Amino acid sequence: MTFNDDLKRELTAIRRQIHRYPELGGREFRTAGLVERTLRSWGIPSRRLTPTGIVAVMPGRGRCVALRADMDALPLAEDPARPYASRNPGAMHACGHDAHVAMLLGAARILSRKKRPAGTVKFFFQPNEEGAGGAKSMISKGAMDRPKVDAVFGLHVNPRLPAGTVGVKAGPVMAAVDRFEISVLGKGGHAAYPHEGRDALFIASEIVVALQSVVSRDLDPVEPAVLTVGTFNSGTGFNILAGTAVLTGTVRTLSEKAHGRIPCVMRRIVHGICRAHGARAGIKYERIGSVLRNSRALAELARDEAVRLFGPRRVRRLESPSMGGEDFSEYLRRAPGCFIYIGTAGRNPDSRLPWHHPRFDIDESALPAGSELLARLAESSLGHLKR
Ligand code: NI
Q1: Percentage of the chain surpassing pLDDT 70?
Q2: 241 alpha carbon to ligand 1 midpoint, in Å?
Q3: CA of 85 to the centre of ligand 1 (A)
Q4: Residue 154 C-alpha to ligand 1 middle, in angstroms?
Q5: 165 and 45, same structural domain?
């Protein structure tokens, strides 16, 4: 058995083990334990930075590069057909973070067998990406300092690309993520006498419809943006006039200009409609994550290295960004880096299902490819930064 066969077997076993016991954001205790034990068995030291966040370090002279994997699962019931299906009811690895952990461990294994790289390599095993807050917690505990990280890379599985194919894009890759909550304060009463109250459900309905004009009428049409109302809660009975209504939703943007403008327009519309109907509104608007923007130079480097490793036919330049969010952007606010997709679509039809699907799966042949790419990126970016 060669090292590569062994690695493939080991990574598959690790990924399935994590897949079997998915843990929601901030509660990745079992996963973190597995990561620590695996690193220890390979002689790689690591420490807990947050209750479930881990940093492993391979020290060297000179510059420092970080590789990151997220570890959390989703609150989703897995369609339990496969032998490694989730045994934690209501939790599932439906975004491939189980694979990310396995691939990063594989990269550590590959690098640990080589002679010392030309600098320090840090490995971030990050909690709670889905809830957003995991990257911030790692950074606030000093993940990017001592030694200061000069470049950072992360991988995400992608069911739209064939297994082992690499997708790279320079510039903006994923959107800034905001969350809002709108409360409409009307006046309750009897459903038969609406004129004596202020029907919050009706007013909120008008707001839901009017908010659709923010993107279509208030933004430059060539500016990508999404505004989605995700929840609408109002009313307690069929014959009761609703006194309050609460809407929550998300805004996604790719530019600072749109990011700054949308909440102002939303306030104008919400307060305007409420005033027109004699009701009041409360608006909470939070910025959860910023635009994930890849460095041009490091995206180029990632592309070149992927071509060298896998050949030009297994490397794609991605044209358009996605309006999804990813808290890898937090690291990129502190150091240049590149977030890369690795294809996981194979013969198994479940491996071609979209992210967050209850039967989401991956073609595991992509695992060693992901590890090789991460290891190579660490080495070559250290060589590159030295110059
Ligand atoms: Ni994900």
Answers
A1: 99
A2: 42
A3: 18
A4: 11
A5: yes
| Separation of CA 97 and ligand 1 centre (Å) | 6
Length of the chain as a residue count: 387
pLDDT digits (tens, 9 = 90+) for 325-351: 999 999 999 999 999 999 999 999 999
Identify any residues that bridge with 356 across adjacent strands, giving them in sequence order.
none
Domains identified in the chain, total number: 2
Mean of the per-residue pLDDT values of the chain: 96
pLDDT tier for residue 1 given thresholds of 50, 70 and 90: low
What is the DSSP track for 305-322? Answer: HHHHHH-GGGEEE--S-B
User: Where residue 365 sits, what CATH number does that domain have?
Assistant: 3.40.630.10
Burial profile 35-56: b = 16 or more Cβ within 10 angstroms, e = fewer: bbebbeeeebebeebbebbbbb
Q: How many angstroms does the Cα of residue 355 sit away from the middle of ligand 1?
A: 8
Peptide bond into 263 cis (omega under 30): no
Say if residue 296's pLDDT is above 60: yes
What is the pTM for the complete model shown? 0.91
387 pLDDT more than 60 = no
d(CA 27, CA 127): 8
Distance 356 CA to ligand 1 centre (A): 9
Distance from the alpha carbon of residue 130 to the mean position of ligand 1, in angstroms: 7
- Boundaries of domain holding 65: 5-174+291-386
